[in-house]
Design brief:
- With 301 residues, this protein is an all-alpha fold.
- The protein folds into three domains: 113 residues, Orthogonal Bundle (Endonuclease III, domain 1), CATH 1.10.340; 82 residues, Helix-hairpin-Helix base-excision DNA repair enzymes (C-terminal) (Endonuclease Iii, domain 2, Orthogonal Bundle), CATH 1.10.1670.10; 61 residues, Arc Repressor Mutant, subunit A.
- It is built from 14 helices and two strands.
- Strands 1-2 form a two-stranded antiparallel sheet.
Length: 301
């Protein structure tokens, strides 16, 4: 099945591949930076930030010799600023432990700060052509549906665990170009095999897919497959969340000249001075903020 699936997947992808600047390179450091930026952030939003960041820090050595505060300032607009701190730690580790060269082995990559199993496999496959499948949310969904009918109400079997899906993905990748397969599977999940509205009628894998087969049997082969419904709790207003408050605090500190301290007064939005003080301490523990003895804050220098 793996060869037939890969052939259909890659043939479908060639004319419709999403084009991003970070996909035009196989430089390991550039790929690593893009994969860290893509954690919890959509690809179209990442592109311009990646171009600017790589322009400023084209090598691990360049970022390793920058201050943590400078890394956070260069991360502006991406959110989840802890990623910038961890990426700089990764750059330092690459310089100190790997002579400034990004390692190719996914096991070695996974020992770097902020580089989990998915990111390690993605870097290995995309930058080095290593024969490993990287399971992001999109690829996990594609493999789970194709191999197990995962998510359809008519699926009679247990939901496969991550380890099983990883084994299946590695088997489906076998014999294919790892970089091309990974990007194609990502794009299929992002544009066709979507979470709530899969476009099975446009999918190149529909004839091989158990999810589609379950749906066809359940609906007498007349309906487009749909995932099983699930309860969704209403999300709180973003302005009331700690993530929103942390973002506002970091933005305020970015506007302060490097090295200067500032007192942070409240309230900010709907957040009290007590909530602000707690958020600042969280940022300090994450290495995003430094504090002095008078309760003032700044980005690390």
């Amino acid at each position: 099945m793996g060869t037939a699936l890969a052939h259909r997947l890659l043939s479908w992808h060639r004319p419709v591949a999403r084009q991003f600047a970070f996909r035009a390179t196989t430089d390991p450091w550039a790929v690593l930076v893009s994969e860290v930026m893509l954690q919890q952030t959509q690809a179209p939003r990442v592109e311009r930030h990646w171009i600017a960041f790589i322009g400023r820090y084209p090598t691990p050595d360049a970022l390793a010799h920058a201050s943590v505060g400078d890394a956070i300032r260069s991360w502006q607009g991406l959110g989840y600023n802890r990623r910038a701190v961890r990426l700089r730690e990764t750059a330092v580790a690459i310089v100190e432990r790997h002579d400034g060269q990004v390692p190719w082995d996914p096991t070695e990559l996974a020992t770097l700060p902020g580089i989990g199993p998915y990111t390690a496999r993605a870097i290995a496959a995309i930058a080095f052509g290593a024969p490993v499948a990287a399971l992001d949310t999109n690829i996990r969904r594609v493999v789970g549906r194709v191999m197990h009918g995962h998510g359809h109400a008519a699926d009679p079997g247990p939901i496969p665990g991550p380890a099983r899906v990883q084994v299946d993905a590695d088997a489906l990748l076998e014999g294919s170009d790892p970089r091309a397969w990974t990007l194609a599977a990502m794009d299929l999940g992002a544009t066709i095999c979507r979470p709530r509205t899969p476009r099975c009628d446009a999918c190149p894998l529909v004839e091989l897919c158990r999810f589609a087969a379950h749906a066809a049997m359940a609906a007498g082969a007349t309906a487009v497959p749909r995932p099983a419904p699930r309860a969704v709790s209403p999300a709180p207003s973003f302005e009331t969340t700690n993530r929103w408050l942390r973002g506002r605090l970091v933005e305020a500190l970015r506007s302060i000249p490097p090295g200067e301290w500032t007192a942070i007064a409240g309230p900010i939005g709907r957040h009290s001075q007590q909530a602000i003080a707690a958020a600042v301490q969280d940022l300090r523990r994450d290495g995003i903020v430094e504090m002095d003895g008078e309760g003032r804050a700044r980005l690390p220098v």
